[in-house]
Specification:
Elements (H helix, E strand, L loop, with lengths): L9 H13 L3 E2 L5 H5 L7 E4 L4 H15 L5 E4 L5 H10 L4 E5 H8 L12 H12 L4 E3 L9 E5 L1 H7 L15 E4 L10 H8 L5 E4 L5 H8 L5 E5 L4 H4 L3 E2 L12 E6 H6 L3 H12 L2 H12 L5 H11 L5
Parallel strand pairs: 2-3, 7-8, 7-9
Antiparallel strand pairs: 1-3, 4-11, 5-11, 6-9, 6-10
Amino acid sequence: MKRGRTLFAALVAIAVVASACGGAGSGGSTGGAAATASPVTRPDVIVGSTNFYEQITLGELYSQILEANGYKVTRRFNLGNREIVEPALESGQIDLDAEYLATLLAFLDKDGKIAKPTTDPKETQTGLQKVLDPKALTVLDYAQATDQNGFVVTKDTATSKNLKKLSDLVPVAPTMVLGGPPECPTRPFCALGLKNVYGITFKDFKPLDSGGPLTITALEGKQIDVGLLFTSDPSIVAKNFVLLDDDKHLQLADNIAPVVRNALLQKDDGTLKRLLNSISAKLSQAELNDMNKQVAVDKADSKVVAAAWLKKQGLIK
């Protein structure tokens, strides 16, 4: 159910990255009192991202906290999909980016010969690191925030039926309609998984789209009672939907985490790792969704949104 990605040939990927990098902007300020007082020479850092708003905001979070602590950062955002960005990271055209544990593991180890994604983020992170080791990459701490399948209800439905988590649906689902992509009834992370893992059976299913406008409209119009959206969808905040907690861990762990080149970490004294981990420690689902809403719905600048969040969390001045 994750956002679709198109495969590109390796040579095309490198060419596109080279082209994108040539016109990319950079942030070279070395700010903050800590940077002024410290005699330590910080390595230059190139932060990359794929081509959607959440990734650019995450890239800004990483870039700005590093800049505030004396690092010269070059931004190479909007490079394309993972088929382009991952080779750029491996080849050193970028030094770090924001990733999603389960999706990256499945992408790099398609046959699961080394490790397979699980519903446990720690286990998935450990498996991912085994795949990253030969590539001289390190996955740092993961956030509580994810971008994966989620099930939402309206605020009114949540209140009237006392719904906070998926298991709360068990006694009331037989009176409710589930909406989602047409393949949902036979997919292990959609209706089939809800039945097998939670024992949830709905009165009916309405085929719509994959976490898109049809699902949102159907929820608002009360054509469905429960809808499938991505957990970081900005409409959850914009429409005041309630994201039900996956308390029995149906979904694979697609927690957000920075992935960094070992060559960069080896040039650093540990500060870079500590700074990036400090973002993961504070990045909750609600915080990510609120930033996504500001950028995608309110049309705020990712730089401004990221700076405000970092200041609110006490991570920069």
